[in-house]
Design goal:
Distance between the termini: 51 Å
CATH architecture of one domain: Alpha-Beta Barrel
CATH superfamily of one domain: Aldolase class I
Strand content: 5-15%
Structural class: alpha/beta
CATH topology of one domain: TIM Barrel
Radius of gyration: 20 Å
Low-confidence stretches: none
Largest sheet: 10 strands, mixed
Number of helices: 14
Helix content: 25-40%
Mean pLDDT: 94
Order of helices and strands: EHEHHEHEHEHEHEHHEEEHHHHH
Strand order of the largest sheet: 7-6-5-4-3-2-1-8-9-10
CATH class of one domain: Alpha Beta
Length: 367
Protein backbone atom coordinates (compact mmCIF):
# COMPACT_ATOMS: atom_id res chain seq x y z
CA UNK A 1 0.00 0.00 0.00
CA UNK A 2 1.23 3.49 -0.83
CA UNK A 3 1.84 5.33 2.47
CA UNK A 4 -0.47 8.13 1.28
CA UNK A 5 -3.44 5.72 1.37
CA UNK A 6 -4.57 4.37 4.75
CA UNK A 7 -4.55 0.61 5.28
CA UNK A 8 -7.79 0.75 7.26
CA UNK A 9 -10.75 2.66 5.86
CA UNK A 10 -12.88 4.87 8.05
CA UNK A 11 -15.85 4.44 5.71
CA UNK A 12 -17.15 1.55 3.63
CA UNK A 13 -19.85 2.45 1.09
CA UNK A 14 -22.31 -0.33 0.28
CA UNK A 15 -24.74 -0.32 -2.65
CA UNK A 16 -27.83 -2.38 -1.72
CA UNK A 17 -29.40 -1.64 -5.11
CA UNK A 18 -28.61 0.28 -8.27
CA UNK A 19 -32.25 1.34 -8.58
CA UNK A 20 -33.34 4.88 -7.86
CA UNK A 21 -36.93 5.98 -8.60
CA UNK A 22 -35.64 9.54 -8.88
CA UNK A 23 -34.07 11.10 -11.96
CA UNK A 24 -32.20 14.10 -10.60
CA UNK A 25 -30.74 16.20 -13.39
CA UNK A 26 -27.23 16.15 -11.90
CA UNK A 27 -27.14 12.47 -10.84
CA UNK A 28 -23.87 10.66 -11.60
CA UNK A 29 -25.31 7.11 -11.42
CA UNK A 30 -25.41 5.39 -14.79
CA UNK A 31 -27.46 2.34 -13.75
CA UNK A 32 -30.12 4.01 -11.63
CA UNK A 33 -32.90 2.69 -13.90
CA UNK A 34 -31.88 -0.94 -13.28
CA UNK A 35 -33.18 -3.05 -10.40
CA UNK A 36 -30.06 -4.93 -9.37
CA UNK A 37 -30.06 -5.89 -5.69
CA UNK A 38 -27.39 -7.08 -3.30
CA UNK A 39 -27.68 -10.61 -1.96
CA UNK A 40 -27.23 -11.72 1.63
CA UNK A 41 -24.17 -13.65 0.41
CA UNK A 42 -22.46 -10.40 -0.59
CA UNK A 43 -23.50 -8.69 2.67
CA UNK A 44 -22.06 -11.65 4.61
CA UNK A 45 -18.77 -11.45 2.73
CA UNK A 46 -18.49 -7.76 3.64
CA UNK A 47 -19.20 -8.43 7.32
CA UNK A 48 -16.75 -11.36 7.44
CA UNK A 49 -14.04 -9.16 5.97
CA UNK A 50 -14.56 -6.39 8.51
CA UNK A 51 -14.80 -8.67 11.55
CA UNK A 52 -11.21 -9.88 12.08
CA UNK A 53 -9.35 -6.94 10.58
CA UNK A 54 -10.93 -3.53 11.03
CA UNK A 55 -12.60 -1.61 13.82
CA UNK A 56 -14.76 1.52 14.12
CA UNK A 57 -16.05 1.42 10.54
CA UNK A 58 -18.94 3.52 9.26
CA UNK A 59 -20.95 1.53 6.73
CA UNK A 60 -22.83 3.91 4.43
CA UNK A 61 -25.72 2.40 2.45
CA UNK A 62 -25.83 4.49 -0.70
CA UNK A 63 -25.43 4.42 -4.47
CA UNK A 64 -29.00 4.07 -5.72
CA UNK A 65 -31.94 4.62 -3.38
CA UNK A 66 -31.30 2.26 -0.43
CA UNK A 67 -34.96 2.35 0.60
CA UNK A 68 -35.90 0.90 -2.80
CA UNK A 69 -34.97 -2.60 -1.57
CA UNK A 70 -37.77 -2.49 1.03
CA UNK A 71 -37.38 -2.58 4.80
CA UNK A 72 -37.64 -6.38 5.11
CA UNK A 73 -34.89 -7.00 2.56
CA UNK A 74 -32.74 -4.28 4.09
CA UNK A 75 -32.93 -6.00 7.49
CA UNK A 76 -31.75 -9.22 5.83
CA UNK A 77 -28.70 -7.35 4.52
CA UNK A 78 -28.02 -5.92 7.99
CA UNK A 79 -28.09 -9.25 9.80
CA UNK A 80 -24.59 -10.49 8.85
CA UNK A 81 -23.01 -7.45 10.53
CA UNK A 82 -25.36 -7.25 13.51
CA UNK A 83 -22.93 -8.80 15.97
CA UNK A 84 -20.30 -6.29 14.82
CA UNK A 85 -22.71 -3.42 15.36
CA UNK A 86 -23.62 -4.64 18.83
CA UNK A 87 -19.94 -4.89 19.68
CA UNK A 88 -19.35 -1.33 18.49
CA UNK A 89 -17.19 -2.30 15.51
CA UNK A 90 -19.49 -0.86 12.83
CA UNK A 91 -21.99 1.98 12.61
CA UNK A 92 -24.62 2.15 9.89
CA UNK A 93 -25.77 5.16 7.92
CA UNK A 94 -28.41 5.42 5.18
CA UNK A 95 -28.44 8.25 2.64
CA UNK A 96 -31.88 8.70 1.09
CA UNK A 97 -33.28 11.14 -1.44
CA UNK A 98 -36.87 10.32 -0.53
CA UNK A 99 -37.36 8.18 -3.62
CA UNK A 100 -39.29 5.78 -1.42
CA UNK A 101 -41.50 6.88 1.50
CA UNK A 102 -40.01 6.83 4.98
CA UNK A 103 -42.68 4.74 6.69
CA UNK A 104 -43.11 3.66 10.29
CA UNK A 105 -41.59 0.32 9.28
CA UNK A 106 -38.46 2.12 8.09
CA UNK A 107 -38.34 4.19 11.27
CA UNK A 108 -38.52 0.94 13.27
CA UNK A 109 -35.47 -0.31 11.36
CA UNK A 110 -33.55 2.93 11.90
CA UNK A 111 -34.23 2.78 15.63
CA UNK A 112 -33.63 -0.94 16.10
CA UNK A 113 -30.29 -0.91 14.31
CA UNK A 114 -29.22 2.56 15.46
CA UNK A 115 -28.89 3.76 11.86
CA UNK A 116 -27.92 7.34 11.19
CA UNK A 117 -30.12 8.88 8.51
CA UNK A 118 -28.97 11.35 5.90
CA UNK A 119 -31.52 13.11 3.71
CA UNK A 120 -30.69 14.60 0.31
CA UNK A 121 -32.48 17.89 -0.29
CA UNK A 122 -31.09 21.08 -1.82
CA UNK A 123 -33.18 23.76 -0.13
CA UNK A 124 -36.65 25.28 -0.35
CA UNK A 125 -39.02 24.21 -3.11
CA UNK A 126 -37.86 26.78 -5.66
CA UNK A 127 -34.21 25.72 -5.24
CA UNK A 128 -34.89 21.98 -5.21
CA UNK A 129 -35.94 21.74 -8.85
CA UNK A 130 -33.11 19.42 -9.91
CA UNK A 131 -34.59 16.65 -7.78
CA UNK A 132 -37.38 15.02 -9.79
CA UNK A 133 -38.85 11.56 -10.32
CA UNK A 134 -38.82 9.61 -13.58
CA UNK A 135 -41.88 11.47 -14.76
CA UNK A 136 -40.17 14.82 -14.20
CA UNK A 137 -42.34 15.58 -11.16
CA UNK A 138 -40.83 17.50 -8.26
CA UNK A 139 -39.67 15.41 -5.29
CA UNK A 140 -39.84 18.25 -2.78
CA UNK A 141 -43.12 17.39 -1.04
CA UNK A 142 -42.25 13.70 -0.80
CA UNK A 143 -38.81 14.39 0.63
CA UNK A 144 -40.21 16.81 3.21
CA UNK A 145 -42.90 14.23 4.12
CA UNK A 146 -40.10 11.76 4.84
CA UNK A 147 -38.38 14.31 7.06
CA UNK A 148 -41.61 14.86 8.96
CA UNK A 149 -41.92 11.11 9.51
CA UNK A 150 -38.44 11.08 11.03
CA UNK A 151 -39.23 14.06 13.25
CA UNK A 152 -42.45 12.48 14.49
CA UNK A 153 -40.42 9.52 15.71
CA UNK A 154 -37.67 11.71 17.16
CA UNK A 155 -35.06 10.38 14.73
CA UNK A 156 -32.34 12.97 14.01
CA UNK A 157 -31.12 13.42 10.46
CA UNK A 158 -28.32 15.08 8.56
CA UNK A 159 -28.64 16.78 5.17
CA UNK A 160 -26.58 16.61 1.99
CA UNK A 161 -27.38 19.42 -0.44
CA UNK A 162 -26.08 19.96 -3.95
CA UNK A 163 -25.06 23.51 -4.84
CA UNK A 164 -25.78 24.23 -8.50
CA UNK A 165 -25.24 27.39 -10.50
CA UNK A 166 -28.78 28.56 -9.81
CA UNK A 167 -28.37 28.32 -6.05
CA UNK A 168 -24.99 29.98 -5.45
CA UNK A 169 -26.64 33.34 -4.72
CA UNK A 170 -29.03 31.88 -2.15
CA UNK A 171 -26.88 30.42 0.63
CA UNK A 172 -28.77 32.23 3.39
CA UNK A 173 -32.18 31.09 2.13
CA UNK A 174 -30.96 27.50 1.82
CA UNK A 175 -29.39 27.47 5.27
CA UNK A 176 -32.42 29.07 6.92
CA UNK A 177 -34.67 26.49 5.29
CA UNK A 178 -32.54 23.50 6.28
CA UNK A 179 -32.18 24.75 9.85
CA UNK A 180 -35.95 25.23 10.11
CA UNK A 181 -36.45 21.79 8.56
CA UNK A 182 -34.83 20.40 11.68
CA UNK A 183 -31.31 19.29 10.81
CA UNK A 184 -28.29 20.22 12.86
CA UNK A 185 -25.67 19.06 10.34
CA UNK A 186 -25.36 20.05 6.66
CA UNK A 187 -22.89 19.00 4.00
CA UNK A 188 -22.74 20.86 0.70
CA UNK A 189 -21.63 19.18 -2.53
CA UNK A 190 -20.92 21.68 -5.28
CA UNK A 191 -22.23 20.24 -8.55
CA UNK A 192 -19.44 18.59 -10.52
CA UNK A 193 -18.92 16.69 -13.76
CA UNK A 194 -19.18 13.09 -12.59
CA UNK A 195 -20.39 9.90 -14.23
CA UNK A 196 -23.71 10.41 -16.00
CA UNK A 197 -23.52 14.14 -15.27
CA UNK A 198 -20.65 14.67 -17.68
CA UNK A 199 -22.21 17.77 -19.25
CA UNK A 200 -22.76 19.58 -15.95
CA UNK A 201 -22.74 23.38 -15.93
CA UNK A 202 -20.71 23.69 -12.77
CA UNK A 203 -20.71 26.97 -10.83
CA UNK A 204 -17.97 29.45 -11.59
CA UNK A 205 -15.28 29.84 -8.96
CA UNK A 206 -16.43 33.40 -8.27
CA UNK A 207 -20.02 32.30 -7.69
CA UNK A 208 -18.85 29.42 -5.51
CA UNK A 209 -16.75 31.82 -3.46
CA UNK A 210 -19.80 34.05 -2.97
CA UNK A 211 -21.80 31.04 -1.76
CA UNK A 212 -19.14 30.10 0.77
CA UNK A 213 -18.70 33.71 1.94
CA UNK A 214 -22.42 33.93 2.66
CA UNK A 215 -22.26 30.53 4.36
CA UNK A 216 -19.48 31.64 6.71
CA UNK A 217 -21.44 34.79 7.53
CA UNK A 218 -24.53 32.72 8.28
CA UNK A 219 -22.62 30.30 10.50
CA UNK A 220 -21.20 33.18 12.51
CA UNK A 221 -24.68 33.93 13.89
CA UNK A 222 -26.15 30.41 13.72
CA UNK A 223 -23.87 28.29 15.85
CA UNK A 224 -26.51 25.62 16.51
CA UNK A 225 -25.99 24.11 13.03
CA UNK A 226 -22.76 22.50 11.81
CA UNK A 227 -21.86 23.02 8.16
CA UNK A 228 -19.33 20.36 7.22
CA UNK A 229 -17.10 22.55 5.05
CA UNK A 230 -17.01 25.38 7.58
CA UNK A 231 -16.21 23.02 10.45
CA UNK A 232 -13.49 21.28 8.42
CA UNK A 233 -11.73 24.50 7.48
CA UNK A 234 -11.93 26.02 10.96
CA UNK A 235 -10.74 22.74 12.44
CA UNK A 236 -7.73 22.78 10.13
CA UNK A 237 -6.87 26.36 11.06
CA UNK A 238 -7.00 25.42 14.74
CA UNK A 239 -4.17 22.92 14.28
CA UNK A 240 -0.57 23.72 15.09
CA UNK A 241 1.78 24.66 12.25
CA UNK A 242 3.38 21.23 12.42
CA UNK A 243 0.03 19.48 12.28
CA UNK A 244 -1.09 21.54 9.30
CA UNK A 245 2.08 20.79 7.36
CA UNK A 246 2.02 17.05 8.05
CA UNK A 247 0.81 14.81 5.22
CA UNK A 248 -2.33 12.85 6.00
CA UNK A 249 -3.50 9.57 4.53
CA UNK A 250 -6.41 9.22 2.13
CA UNK A 251 -9.27 6.98 3.13
CA UNK A 252 -9.42 4.20 0.50
CA UNK A 253 -13.24 4.29 0.85
CA UNK A 254 -13.88 0.78 -0.47
CA UNK A 255 -17.21 1.00 -2.28
CA UNK A 256 -18.97 -2.29 -2.80
CA UNK A 257 -21.47 -2.79 -5.61
CA UNK A 258 -24.61 -4.86 -5.41
CA UNK A 259 -22.72 -7.78 -6.99
CA UNK A 260 -19.65 -7.54 -4.72
CA UNK A 261 -17.35 -5.58 -7.05
CA UNK A 262 -15.11 -3.13 -5.20
CA UNK A 263 -13.77 0.24 -6.34
CA UNK A 264 -11.47 2.44 -4.27
CA UNK A 265 -10.85 6.11 -3.51
CA UNK A 266 -14.08 7.47 -5.02
CA UNK A 267 -17.61 5.98 -4.75
CA UNK A 268 -18.52 7.81 -7.97
CA UNK A 269 -16.30 5.40 -9.92
CA UNK A 270 -18.71 2.54 -9.27
CA UNK A 271 -20.30 1.31 -12.51
CA UNK A 272 -18.10 3.50 -14.73
CA UNK A 273 -16.71 1.80 -17.85
CA UNK A 274 -13.04 2.28 -18.64
CA UNK A 275 -10.79 -0.12 -20.49
CA UNK A 276 -7.75 1.89 -19.42
CA UNK A 277 -8.49 1.34 -15.74
CA UNK A 278 -10.30 -2.02 -16.02
CA UNK A 279 -13.57 -0.41 -14.91
CA UNK A 280 -11.80 0.58 -11.66
CA UNK A 281 -12.69 -2.79 -10.10
CA UNK A 282 -10.11 -3.74 -7.46
CA UNK A 283 -11.66 -7.13 -6.71
CA UNK A 284 -14.89 -8.81 -5.69
CA UNK A 285 -15.75 -9.69 -2.10
CA UNK A 286 -17.18 -13.06 -3.18
CA UNK A 287 -13.76 -14.01 -4.55
CA UNK A 288 -11.27 -11.87 -2.61
CA UNK A 289 -10.97 -10.83 1.02
CA UNK A 290 -11.89 -7.14 1.30
CA UNK A 291 -8.91 -6.32 3.52
CA UNK A 292 -6.60 -7.90 0.95
CA UNK A 293 -8.25 -5.90 -1.82
CA UNK A 294 -7.48 -2.70 0.08
CA UNK A 295 -3.94 -3.79 0.93
CA UNK A 296 -3.22 -4.32 -2.77
CA UNK A 297 -4.61 -0.95 -3.82
CA UNK A 298 -1.12 0.19 -4.78
CA UNK A 299 -1.12 -2.32 -7.64
CA UNK A 300 -3.97 -0.49 -9.40
CA UNK A 301 -3.05 1.92 -12.17
CA UNK A 302 -5.53 4.60 -11.10
CA UNK A 303 -4.35 4.48 -7.49
CA UNK A 304 -0.74 4.75 -8.66
CA UNK A 305 -1.55 7.75 -10.85
CA UNK A 306 -3.47 9.47 -8.06
CA UNK A 307 -0.82 9.02 -5.40
CA UNK A 308 1.92 10.11 -7.81
CA UNK A 309 -0.06 13.23 -8.69
CA UNK A 310 -0.26 14.12 -5.00
CA UNK A 311 3.44 14.94 -5.07
CA UNK A 312 2.83 17.46 -7.85
CA UNK A 313 -0.10 18.91 -5.92
CA UNK A 314 2.10 19.40 -2.88
CA UNK A 315 4.78 21.16 -4.89
CA UNK A 316 2.51 23.47 -6.86
CA UNK A 317 -0.61 24.22 -4.82
CA UNK A 318 -0.77 26.57 -1.84
CA UNK A 319 -3.92 24.80 -0.63
CA UNK A 320 -2.39 21.33 -0.43
CA UNK A 321 -1.81 21.29 3.32
CA UNK A 322 -5.57 21.76 3.75
CA UNK A 323 -7.05 19.56 1.02
CA UNK A 324 -4.23 16.96 0.77
CA UNK A 325 -5.09 16.45 -2.89
CA UNK A 326 -8.88 16.35 -2.51
CA UNK A 327 -10.94 13.71 -4.29
CA UNK A 328 -9.55 11.28 -6.83
CA UNK A 329 -12.67 10.77 -8.93
CA UNK A 330 -13.01 14.40 -9.99
CA UNK A 331 -9.62 14.25 -11.69
CA UNK A 332 -10.79 11.40 -13.88
CA UNK A 333 -14.22 12.80 -14.67
CA UNK A 334 -12.83 16.21 -15.61
CA UNK A 335 -9.63 15.12 -17.39
CA UNK A 336 -9.88 11.40 -18.16
CA UNK A 337 -6.83 10.67 -16.02
CA UNK A 338 -5.77 10.77 -12.38
CA UNK A 339 -2.33 12.17 -13.24
CA UNK A 340 -3.45 15.81 -12.99
CA UNK A 341 -3.55 18.33 -10.20
CA UNK A 342 -6.08 21.16 -10.08
CA UNK A 343 -9.76 20.53 -10.92
CA UNK A 344 -12.99 22.51 -10.89
CA UNK A 345 -13.89 20.53 -7.80
CA UNK A 346 -10.71 21.78 -6.10
CA UNK A 347 -11.47 25.35 -7.06
CA UNK A 348 -15.14 25.29 -5.99
CA UNK A 349 -15.07 23.04 -2.93
CA UNK A 350 -11.62 23.62 -1.43
CA UNK A 351 -10.10 26.85 -2.69
CA UNK A 352 -13.32 28.89 -2.80
CA UNK A 353 -14.21 28.32 0.90
CA UNK A 354 -10.66 29.19 1.97
CA UNK A 355 -10.61 32.33 -0.17
CA UNK A 356 -14.05 33.33 1.07
CA UNK A 357 -12.95 33.08 4.68
CA UNK A 358 -9.75 35.01 3.94
CA UNK A 359 -11.82 37.73 2.27
CA UNK A 360 -14.10 38.02 5.29
CA UNK A 361 -11.21 38.15 7.74
CA UNK A 362 -9.46 40.79 5.66
CA UNK A 363 -12.63 42.89 5.48
CA UNK A 364 -13.18 42.69 9.22
CA UNK A 365 -9.57 43.54 10.01
CA UNK A 366 -10.04 46.80 8.10
CA UNK A 367 -13.25 47.75 9.88
Amino acid sequence: MDPRVAEQPRTVVVQPTTLCPMDCTYCYLLERHLKQEMTVEVASAIANAIAPTWDSIEVVWHGGEPLAVGSARFVELLQPSESLRRAGHVRHKVQTGGGRPITNAWCDVFEQYDISVGVSIDGPRELNGHRVDRGGRAMFDRTVAGVEALKQRGIPFTVLAVVSQNSTAHATRILDFLRDLGTRWIGFNVEAKEGANSDAQTPSTGDAQRFWRDTFEWCRVNDDVTVREVANLLGFLALTDAQREADSQHDPIPTIAWNGDVVLLSPELLGISSTTYENFVAGNVLKNDLATIVERAGDLRYVQEFTSALAACKQTCEFFSYCQGAHAGDRYFEHGTFAVTETDHCRNSVQAPALALAELLHTRSGE
